[in-house]
Amino acid sequence: MNRRLVDLARDLGLDPENRAYIPYGHDFAKIDTVAAGEGTAHGNLVVVSAVTPTPLGEGKTVTSISLGMGLAKIGESALTCLRQPSLGPVFGAKGGGAGGGRAQVVPSDRINLGGTGDGQAVGAAHNLLAAMLDAHLRHGNALKIDPARIAFSRVTPVNDGSLRKVITGLGGPLNGVPRESFFEINEASEVMAILALAHDRGDLRKRLGNIVLGPDQGGAPVRAEQLGAAGAMSVLLRDALYPTLARTSEGTPVLLHAGPFANIAHGNSSLIATRWALTRSPWVVTECGFGTDLGLEKFVHIKARLGNLRPACVVVVCTVRALKVHAGLAKAVLGKPLDQAVLTEDVSAVEKGAANLRHHLRIATNFGPPVVVALNRFPTDTDAEIAVVEGIAREFGAGFAVHSGFADGGAGAEALARAVVKAARPTDLRYQYEATGPLAQRLESLARNVYGAAGIELAPAARTRLAQIEKWGLGELQLCVAKTHLATTHDPADGGLPRPFTLPVRDVLVRAGAGFATVLTGELTTLPALGARPNAVDMDLDPVTGAPIGL
Amino acid sequence: MNRRLVDLARDLGLDPENRAYIPYGHDFAKIDTVAAGEGTAHGNLVVVSAVTPTPLGEGKTVTSISLGMGLAKIGESALTCLRQPSLGPVFGAKGGGAGGGRAQVVPSDRINLGGTGDGQAVGAAHNLLAAMLDAHLRHGNALKIDPARIAFSRVTPVNDGSLRKVITGLGGPLNGVPRESFFEINEASEVMAILALAHDRGDLRKRLGNIVLGPDQGGAPVRAEQLGAAGAMSVLLRDALYPTLARTSEGTPVLLHAGPFANIAHGNSSLIATRWALTRSPWVVTECGFGTDLGLEKFVHIKARLGNLRPACVVVVCTVRALKVHAGLAKAVLGKPLDQAVLTEDVSAVEKGAANLRHHLRIATNFGPPVVVALNRFPTDTDAEIAVVEGIAREFGAGFAVHSGFADGGAGAEALARAVVKAARPTDLRYQYEATGPLAQRLESLARNVYGAAGIELAPAARTRLAQIEKWGLGELQLCVAKTHLATTHDPADGGLPRPFTLPVRDVLVRAGAGFATVLTGELTTLPALGARPNAVDMDLDPVTGAPIGL
């Protein structure tokens, strides 16, 4: 329970006196994975995904943390790999991303407030490139970049909706060239996706150089490397490339590293952390953003394909209340108390909403590795309701376990840990679209095979962009679909029950440094805003202890 | 030489096992000065200032570091308090701010790249307030803030000139309210000045709440406290409030803390660091930005007056080449080799330029504490030239010593250390303007008594603003004059030789959280820009060692 961070490091074969172990305050240490020695991967990789989430979240992080602690309880040591949560939304309306109850990474306040500052390093590197781009325009634009077609943003750590669309470069020619521009949140930066996908420092450097800023006046892509920016950006990211070791509330180890968004980016923690973890721990638990159609699909086709990962098990988190919400019993709204109907036994609603679970189990089982359904139990769930979920898991040949990690910590996840150990078998993934070939064709495979769509419908802008990408020689990018997480389709109004649909593609963004093309299937916000009464208003430091309150 | 950081901590009475000692990587530790215990101040405070600098810098940081090391060499232990350098200019055209040669804080690359991230924390806190301000406008503007008169910026860590003037809030009502706005660099933030001037956590919290954002439609000031932002801002600044312990290249201790600009802000390291240092070390050396007319004047009237500091000695750094440049022998341009004339013996040029030294010695000696002139010796300086400088020091009853800390480290600063020890005598400061009374009258005293101006000339905007400040009940703010550092007057074209002048005041900015009114006497840039070929282009990580190159 009260093991120190240095003890956890020793368990992982790290000597805390060695320079590979870099303390960051009393609660975190960064790990220089190269200096630590990479070793041979021998661990079992368990990937945690979920059904279509409600706005309340289904406890995927809680489940990932509980599972790591549960494995420890049954005598199997595990290392849990998570994303570093975004700082901005904590001040808005969202909670943090460090788990909750008795299944937390501690101290959760420090983690939710930016941890070891990697997000800020990403922001500085991103904004340095943006500044060099605008300085290039102002000092003669030798590369003939087309100022009206620049596709590269600036980023900010806070939820600052009024920076979504701006005009920069005003105030005269000494300041810059006026143009319309936009800001995103640090975690939406392509630089964050690059950090999460880089194999090593050299690969990071190369990917940063490959960032496409926009076309020149002849229509050719202009890259960060041409501005000479990638070296300086990698200097700013030197320490951010090291995963952060932290502890759970039960003293088990966690690696936090990179926090790419699961819509515009691929929503998985870093490849560096996962691969290193597999060399140091017999069990590695990692979590993907949103449902199997988003984070897990991107885990498979982007992260795992790139890193030759062979997961031993996929865990699909499900809650009774989510299925009830998907059945249409009530609307879940963040910050509002749940409708009483959701908290009352209703087996038929669970059966109706279970169409959503079936949808995700079809997606998950198609990828190949054994699947376990983890029911994150709430106090109001009844045995009859739970039996419905278990029955559906059995239909798909999946394992099943109830866990109560939020209330009981690792002790509440022993059954889940046993179910995972029983099911686990490292497996070659069955990719649902090819790694190469025409982009539109690969996208169609993805839409059909994963989403269950009848096909895709390309808007003229998307068609033009796909042709441009192939003309630029970037046809071998992977696909990163920006799609609502609140429905099985592209339309959040559809909710969690699948329906026949065709996927409309509005536009495509080039993220050549990250190695993917972002496919836009709806409006998406890459910079959250603050509401009329943001959480920040209730925050303060305790005048006596100095501890944050209101987080 | 190779003493570890934990050994330095023990020398300062800190137990590295105690939670007051917070390691940040292998090279830095933050000190929770409250948890460490404040104790009684018994140290001698030595304040390092300079003549009017040339664009090349006169080695003030090198002198401060050398002096600390030189004191150690002669058996006196010293703690040197410096500002945390700004990240942005390192990628532009400026060098770092961690000293140089054999008088550095190490590792200088990490320090120049942001150290322990305090600047980024300041940026996040500042930008959270800006986001809450714009969200307030968008959600009905209950406080009736006048959007056209908002005086609060956003900040960025990079030299991004194209953000100096922007229009934000575009793209429709869900994003925000369109208005003209501006960005500054993190170090120009009022939040940075507050961090540097706060007595403790409670004072920080209060000052953050006192930030004036602009007038409401009735002309009354709207403060950060009214938006409910100050608590959340102080949460973001929790760790930034702890000074950073680091080592010099000779293993002596340094505290880095806060990096306010010496023009728009007061240009001195934090009061918290200086006061704590005085309880732990018999000698404390601290540096102020630019010449005695800027950093030292602000040290005296803002930092020392607030903190009841009684300096034992003021060191005025002078170089032979600066006096030659001030004599008009050549123009010094950053990044260009120095004109040969400056490098050749020319006693009469030194005598002519010495008018600048006399100007600064008059300012420094008027403040009361004993003064020592530190000649930062360059290899081309001749004995005859040095004798001129020594003669002028004697005219003012000041001590004098030559040092060669850049080339020789502490051994090259032993004579300077002895001169300081000999002169030192804790002294009540003679303030050159009153702490209270009409602002214009106090400003006139400052201009006459410090700058040697014949008086002040208030532009109509400045006059209106001063009246507004007094109407707002803020007449007791101190004065923070933004004035060129390259001349004794307000006009950089005047150079270093004093001439009769009247100080023109263009405008006045309210910085009620920091506790001063910023008096603008010329155009000033609070956001540097990148040139046609910024330093960033030459930076990279060494592919083998991973160490930054090109910094």
What oligomerization state is this entry in? homodimer
- Distance between the first and last residues' Cα of chain A: 24 Å
- The percent range for helix content of chain A is 25-40%
Rg of chain A over CA atoms, rounded to whole Å, is 23 Å
What name is given to the CATH topology of the domain at 440-520 in chain A?
Formyltetrahydrofolate synthetase, domain 3
Shape descriptor of chain A: globular
CATH superfamily of the domain at 440-520 in chain A: Formyltetrahydrofolate synthetase, domain 3
Any idea what the CATH architecture of the domain at 440-520 in chain A is?
Roll
What is the SS-derived class of chain A?
A: alpha/beta
What is the number of beta strands of chain A?
25
- Number of H- or I-type helical stretches of chain A: 17
Strand residue percentage of chain A = 15-25%
GO molecular function (chains A, B): formate-tetrahydrofolate ligase activity
Keywords (chains A, B): ATP-binding, Ligase, Nucleotide-binding, One-carbon metabolism
Pathway (chains A, B): One-carbon metabolism; tetrahydrofolate interconversion
Enzyme class (chains A, B): ligase
